[in-house]
Amino acid sequence: MLLRKPIASIILVLAVLIFGGITLSRLSIELLPNVNPPTLLISTEYKGAPAADVEYRINERLEGTLGSVRGVQETRSLSRQGQSLIFLTFKWGTDMDLAFLNVREKLDQARPLLPQNAERPQLVYSSASDEPIATIAVTLKDAENQSFGNRLATKRWAEQVFTRRLEQQDGIAQALLVGEVEPEVQINYDPKLLDRYGLTLTQVQQIISNANVFSSTGELRDGWYRYAIKIQSRIETIEDIESIPVISLANGRVLTLSEIADVEIREADPSSFALLDNQEVLNVLVKKEYGANTVTVFETLQNAVNEIKTQNPEFDIQIIREDATYIENSISNLLQTLIIGGILAFIVLFLFLDDIRSPFTIGISIPVSIFLTFVIMYLFDIQLNIISLSGLTLGIGLLLDNSIVVLENINRYKKQGLDKYEAASKGTKEIALAVTASTFTTISVFLPLIFLGGFEGAFFRDLAATLSISLLSSLLIALVILPVFVVQFSGKGTSGFLSRISYGLDTVIQKYERSLAKAINKPLLPILFTLVVSVIAGFAFLNIQKNALPEGEPERVEYLVTLPGNTSLRSSKDASKTITDFIKRETDSVQILSVGGYTDNTSLSSIQDEGLNKFKITVPVQNWQEAYRVEDLFSSLQKTYQTWSFSKQGDSRIGGSSSSVEAPVQFSVVGIDRNFSKRIGLALEDYMSKGFKEVSLSEKFPQTVEAYQLQLKNDRLLFYEISERDVIAYLESLTRGMYVTDWNRQDEQIAIRLLGEGENLTDPQEIKLNIKNKVIPLSEIAIINVVDEAEQIERLEQSAILTYNSDFTFVDWWWNSDEIQEQVNDFMQRTGHEIKIGGTALQLINLLKELGLLLSISVLLIYLILAIQYENLKYPFIIILAIPFAWIGSVFALYLGGVSLNALSFMGILILTGIAVNDSILKVDFMRRYYEETGNLEEAVREAGKNRFRPVVMTSLTTILGLIPMLIPFGDGYVLRQSLAIALMGGMVTSTLLTLYLIPMVFKWIEGRKRIKNGSIKNVSIKN
Length: 1024
What we know:
single chain, 1024 residues, alpha+beta, disordered C terminus
């Protein structure tokens, strides 16, 4: 159609390049695909309640209601002191917006089932947008110390100015404060004065609350007019609180609050802290809007921060953590490898094509296909991330294959003497069906992704889409644009340097023919070699490290430190200072960040690891050596502080898990009585030790908290003429303070609390209640016991469980899973107690099974497509023999390169599955056609080796050289692209050797047996 319209063709190419460049700058950039886990979190505050009460009164009741929500796959819950966490995991593909509404409706229905003093359940759906893109530290400059007043001033400025300015910027959704100081009005009353004037705490609380009233009571009508009536008795200043009238005395004097209590603004008990090199800082977590470009948003953030710095020089503002630079560098490096790979693949063309102009003619396929892919990615809202871009980079050599085959066929007709237009038209039409079938064979390996659910299917959809789009684009270029360029720009033959290269290749082809003849005549040695290599590859596969995602070059080392359950936040802060001082003494690290307490209640990844006795320490490092040094320091700290728990956290930028308590293999004892479950766990450990020596089990949540359990004596309360409510109110005022009301000062809400005056009491036995002119020891009216309670208890599928981490590794489970399962089953039969097995090893095995199923389905699809194309079941079998030998090369490359078998390297193997058959198709198709035409089997094998050596080696080299830049360990994110490239390159080497040697041997063996079987027919054919 366009053969005689070269200007139209050139304009189409230019249009694709221009629009591709425009859309490239507008594509959303992220590090990894935006895969939102289908999980909802229901968080319920039940202040003061122990974990056992939270489980019984909240988790059990809510789980029964929420379990009936459509699409729920798993229900898991954690009970903590004062907090309930319920995780609902849904099936992949569930409409989470609808699920959110269904769960909210169920929660509203279940609200009457919960205790009255429990807060309303909060529903959280965490996505990638909920993870902060940057962490900013704010402090007051030139301040001698970060006192309460200085920190309060910083916090108020951050709330009223800084965060508001940030949230006004395009792409920034929210700015959260961590480590902020919270002011509160503390009214320290004197119990003796209350008794003197006959006042109770309840009365004082009600008096203060009544002094802070704002109400609308109706309206007055006056003819045509109406006037609203508002009653306002709102506290405006601290003096208003001090002057609140409490009681009118007998002499007519009014007693004010300041006469019976001290009123001050002080720091409330903090819920979080943030330290930078042991200096108090105010952390600001910046979150982006859903779907916004992280890199663009961070650039906007930087500009806004610089502007605010200039306008507010009294504050020190520094960005201490961000991932945008890592993302930008990773994408930039991958784009560079894409360009370099394209150039290397382009150079290969000069070595194999006789015409100096032909490489430029074919080379246009690479940029046009890639830029056309960018346009389609923009139209279908596909992100530019390291996975989608890897799909383009992996296919850089494949983009030339279709053009090479089309050009070769056109040149064949030109050598027969046809006119260049006729040669281009006839050559393209003849090869169009075969090229199209080859392209769709490669793409077909991605079809099973439709059936593969879960993280794997969602994670690799971008890669499958970009590679498929680019291959279809290259097919379109090869069939529509390339013939026009061949007619207009191709040369007339070889000359100079290229002719010498062509002669050298002819020599190589002759040597290959001789070696192939020897291999066919003496097949025993190649077959033995193949079997030995297969066995070694199987051994290597079993010993390769297996992970979900590769581990990258560290930029920081992060540890979660868990102290004993009763540890307060202030003590946790002191502990973090101790650790930071130790690390700074032993290393040159700076900007060590410590964050503890409750920081971000909207992030599923962090909320599980938060608590008043927990904090995270992040140490910046430059390389693996520094990282190992820091890890050794934490190991020595673990030996020094044996009651503290140190758990290394994964790198969240490339999918590292933040969970700190998951072991490869876990055993969960099902039972309500966890004390009895502990005995069952010990018995299980002894029983397992019979089959597996020195196996040990440790509790997943071993931390306990000490609590004072008070049982009031009703007869003594009656004797002293006091109520249970009087005792509770008095104790509350002595401990955390009795909440009264909120003081709204401008746009700030400040809590007002009543606190008992006197010394800090640490033992309930020492508490004395001063009520109604009586001083009553608490031990007189209550039985006081000290009890140990679990800090955190777990439930799974509406069953109470006690989980044990085992020291079984992934390798142990890989080799002995059947024996372990059998021994656990035998234990359950003997004892009658249910044991559930879980852990990361089982999850990883399931991942490998899913990916193995994906490979199997891909191979089956390739076979079916080839069987349909050839209308034959024999030739497709010969062709797909290239696939397992390609896998052998991938396994060897991963093993020798020290790269784990992970989801990315597995995707390289999947892509290889579609590529490996292409060269095999070229050989088998030529041998089949030649043999059918001549009936000479030996000649068919020999001619295939001579005529197909050049295109087979050329297509393989273009793919391999296009991947070489991905192997170079430079820049951010190289481990991700390296895993893909190594798996694909290793397989390409072995599949090419198989295509050149073993495929002809198998073809001759199968066809030879058929010829012997039908000897008379074949003999006639040979004579003819």
